[in-house]
């Protein structure tokens, strides 16, 4: 159990738990704005932005980035839980896979009516791919999962 001055971060996707440990601070974009979470933050529940960079400040002051999308964040009792459809550390992002996803989304969008559900879905896929690519390039992503 976390002590009153500790912030515990848990980021979970359907595939795995990305992080589950004490951290100093967390910042991310919620559907309704930017959040900066420190120990003893008030309880909250918010949707996570469609394609979001989560910045984690470790207890030693080091920072690292996590890509997260389509989920929600809950802060309660010094535990920030983020449940996301997709997520990974920036250094894990496979740039070749991201480029392929980007090209696939652009090709799909080219032949569709801009107001169609398929176009909007492809556009969302493109936005995620571009966000992941930007994050990976900034973090020097290699695509290796260790």
Describe the structure.
The protein is of the alpha+beta class. The chain folds into 2 domains: 7-90, ATP Synthase, domain 1; 93-139, Single alpha-helices involved in coiled-coils or other helix-helix interfaces (Up-down Bundle), CATH 1.20.5. The chain is built from 2 helices and 8 strands; from the N terminus they run ββββββββαα. It has helices spanning 95-110, 117-139, and strands at residues 7-12, 17-23, 25-30, 33-37, 44-48, 52-57, 63-76, 79-89. Helix 1 (95-110) packs antiparallel against helix 2. The radius of gyration is 16 Å and the shape is globular. The model has no long low-confidence stretch (mean pLDDT 86).
The main pleated sheet reads as:
8 strands, mixed
What's the CATH architecture of the largest domain?
Sandwich
Uncertain stretches: none
Beta-strand content estimate = 35-45%
Please provide the ordered H/E string of secondary-structure elements: EEEEEEEEHH
Fourth-tier CATH superfamily name of the largest domain: F0F1 ATP synthase delta/epsilon subunit, N-terminal
Distinct helical segment count = 2
């Amino acid at each position: 159990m976390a002590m009153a001055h500790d912030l515990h971060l848990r980021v979970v996707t359907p595939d795995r738990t990305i992080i589950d440990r004490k951290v100093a601070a967390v910042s991310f974009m919620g559907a309704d704005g930017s959040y900066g979470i420190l120990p003893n933050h008030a309880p909250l529940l918010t949707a996570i932005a469609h394609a979001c960079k989560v910045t984690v400040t470790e207890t030693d002051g080091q920072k690292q980035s996590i890509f997260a999308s389509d989920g929600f964040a809950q802060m309660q009792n010094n535990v920030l839980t983020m449940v996301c459809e997709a997520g990974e550390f920036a250094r894990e992002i496979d740039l070749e896979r991201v480029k392929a996803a980007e090209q696939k989304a652009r090709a799909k969008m080219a032949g569709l009516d801009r107001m169609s559900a398929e176009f909007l879905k492809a556009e969302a896929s493109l936005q995620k791919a571009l966000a992941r690519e930007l994050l990976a390039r900034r973090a020097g992503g290699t695509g290796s999962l260790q």
